[in-house]
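pinned: reference chain
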Amino acid sequence: MKSISKNSKITFVELNPTQFGILNGDTGYNIYAPFKFSPRSIPALHGVALAGDYKDVQSISPVYHGINEKLTESNFKRIFESDILGITSISRTSPQSITLAKMYKEKNPEGLVIAG
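pinned: its structure tokens
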């Protein structure tokens, strides 16, 4: 594992629910689907990291930072190049979050995944 410093590249991700839990799949239907709720945890985590004087912090939500509510090539590039990947998840987003964590570790074996 790489050592963590104030210059570490940190990326926080909150994925949206998709049909069958497929990463970057079609948006899953649920009672809340018509509403665009803001991400729950990543703004707070992002703020804590900045307050801790970390220099390179980015948050990604496909709903707001993607195209058609899907991660983009540049989103994936940022994720895979990060020293630390923080993934926040709820039950409905766990399958795609686990897939993303596995992809990250394949591309960046020395990177650190923190999930909750």
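why pinned: Strands lie at 9-14, 56-60, 84-88, 112-115. The longest helix spans residues 94-107.
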